[in-house]
Amino acid sequence: MTTALIVVDVQLDFCEGGSMGVDGGAATASAISAYLGRSAGRYAHVVASRDYHEDPGDHFSSTPDFVDSWPPHCRLGHPGAAFHPDLDVHHLEEVFTKGRFEAAYSAFEGHATDGHLLTPWLRARDVDAVEIVGIATDHCVRATALDAARDGFATTVLLDLTAGVLPETTARAQEEMAGAGVTLTGSVR
């Protein structure tokens, strides 16, 4: 199997102190970097996704419901859209940017610098398995894993390298991912 690692949305706005900070986000950034340092040669490709909103419509709200609408986050040109400084971006071959004009949760909705979506990008490189890490387990990691499995990739989420927003929604996300055939290893931070 040819395996790629997908690092999902390890951005300042999703870590402590950000507009939608997740407890354990900074530690997850550091843990992913340490893992990448130990895993040289394990992956044929290492890519990342990032939220990068300009005008995502109803995705942003001054009175968010935290289901379909959220506080403004990861806005184009704002510091919170940057990758967390503890994430070693030197390992990243490509970054898939998502959500410029709409809500986007899955890395598979993102575009590479050349405009390609993630699935055709991976297929062009003969990738048939993906491992997924990042933030947040119960939202963008979940959506990415479900899309990967739906698109036919053997999919594993390394829960030790993820951070979830709430225990209840994280538990539901794990059940949903497992039900879709996603392999889960470790435990969420």
Automatic annotation (TrEMBL):
SUPFAM superfamilies: Isochorismatase-like hydrolases
Positions of the Isochorismatase-like domain: 3-185
This protein's pathway: Cofactor biosynthesis; nicotinate biosynthesis; nicotinate from nicotinamide: step 1/1
Signal peptide: none
EC number: 3.5.1.19
Enzyme class: hydrolase
Keyword Metal-binding among UniProt keywords: yes
Keywords: Hydrolase, Metal-binding, Pyridine nucleotide biosynthesis
A Pfam family: Isochorismatase
Family that this chain belongs to: Belongs to the isochorismatase family.
Name of the molecule in the record: nicotinamidase
Organism: Actinomycetospora flava
